[in-house]
Amino acid sequence: MVNQASSIQTVGGRSPMPSPQLSHRHISHASPKDEGARTPAAPAAAPGSDIITDVVGNFGIWQLRTILIIFLCKIPAAWFMACIIFTAPELYPRTEFTCDTSYLNSSSSSNYSVSDNQCYVLDDSSGSRSECEQFTYVSSFDSLIMQFNLVCLRDIFIAWTQYWHLFGVLVGGVMGTKMMLGISPRSTYCVGAVAQILCGVVTGYARDFSLHCAFRCLSAVCCAIMFTAGQAIFTDITAGMHRIGAIILYDTFWSIGVIMLPTLSSFFSSWSLIYVGITFPTVMLIVLLYWTPDSPRWLLRHAVDHHSIDNVEQMVREGAEINDRCFKIPPDFRQQLEQLSERLKTAPAPAPWTQLWQGRRAKTHMVAAHLALAFFVINFMGMLLNIRSFGRDYLVPNTIAMGFSEIIGCFLALHFTLKHNKWKWQCAGTFNILAGMLGCMGWLFTGADSMDAELKVSLWMIIATIPKAAVSCAQSMLLACMNELVPANKKQLFVFSVITWARVWLLSAPFFNVLKRIDTALSLTSYSVFSILGGICTCLLLTPRTSTAPVMAQLEQQEQQDKKEQSPLNAPVWTIESDVHNTRL
């Protein structure tokens, strides 16, 4: 619904008093033919445009404020996922933990000795060997490992706790989507934030390992509910390439959280206090909800009375005022909102899952998108946790380097989408193939014992951060642009299917890090192979050249039109030729 450029409206909906000069200038003796030639054609409405987009615009200060507030929820989500790096740092045998043999019933004829790695007790008289069951710890940091004796063969349970976190992300994504069928995204976000605070504190003070895993899972559920509901809000109030750019850059705040985590952890001497430290900043997110709007189209779709329409009208008017677009509000604004509400309520149901396989290149896109995102999310999470393999002494710089590589990858995805939109999939896929090949080169120096330790770790990080940036690039591009691959009635189900499938396979990510016990290069190579396979699948994607894909030329024309319409003073003014030198107001 494109408003007439000459109909300038105030916030109250009343037309301003016309100026005498403007009234005089509209008195023209031009013929209808000349007038038609002079009148600029109204710009075509963007695909999917409605009264809300027409009034608040594709992007502005209002949307930017909302996006920045919602993006903050990614920071505690990153903290809860990656905190295991600092709550369970590796302990060194003999210096930081030793086997305590006092639990054994020794006799005068039995002598016991302990293996060098402090994991086994040897009976010198019989020659038998058994696992050590009791340990003594000497460390200035009270870690999760010390609390639950997760040393030696029990360190597999570190991956087990991470499994439950990722399972919570899977459940939380599905739960958040289902909750928004009856609860507004803003309310869903608030529920997730409050529950996350409660679950996070219990997770930190749980003294039973099963209880700790259970509440770590619940904390992840709450994090996933928050960023799922948050994305539903900012994707509803943005449009065009601004919406795609916002989704691509959503994970940059995740990376900022990863970069901040070492500094935050350094303030605490216990793993329990780290959990408290990463939990309570969520209180600020609840406070910032005051400046966070709800999803206007969700409210219209579920409107039950005129009060719901009133809330949306007030919200959109506030957005138009902040964006300096009050002149775009038409006189029948309320009626158009009611009409939009009726259209949303009577919209056809989404296509069933079986129809996702029907259409040109549909099977290729279904298989390739599902496999690609599965490979990438395993790589994205697993490679971050894999930095524990490079040594405890280098955790801080390695974590920060991983965070910056993720940010670089997100901006590369934005660059490919804006500047190479036609071949963006192939650019991201090729980047992952080449980066994955580089990551497999760790075997060249993994056995070089004579190499300087710091140089070796630096080489490990170089061949790890480049694939990490490539995976971040492709993953963010898939999350933002994969709905272009299908028609409008299949978008929502297609995205839900791909993301849920990927999160199921994400559950395996922590266990690939166990391969470091064989060789550090083996765990890194496994992730590099995933990067190569994901890159191949991404190269098979091709956005249809139809109206479902964003067309750059049309978007540039729309942006130019938005710039012209920023002020009512830029509206076209008709003049007549006379001896008087008229000026434009």
TrEMBL record:
InterPro entries: MFS, MFS_trans_sf
Region described as Disordered: spans on this chain: 1-45
Highest taxon of the lineage: Eukaryota
Organism listed in the record: Drosophila navojoa (Fruit fly)
Gene Ontology molecular function: transmembrane transporter activity
DNA damage found in the keyword field: no
The protein's name: Major facilitator superfamily (MFS) profile domain-containing protein
Keywords: Membrane, Transmembrane, Transmembrane helix
Alphabetical list of SUPFAM superfamilies matching this protein: MFS general substrate transporter
CDD domains recorded: MFS_SLC22
Cell compartments where the protein resides: Membrane
GO CC, alphabetical: membrane
Residues passing through the membrane, by range: 67-88, 156-176, 188-207, 213-234, 246-267, 273-291, 367-387, 399-418, 425-445, 457-481, 493-512, 524-543
Sequence ranges of Polar residues compositional bias: 1-12
UniProt topology in membrane: Multi-pass membrane protein
Keyword Oxidoreductase: no
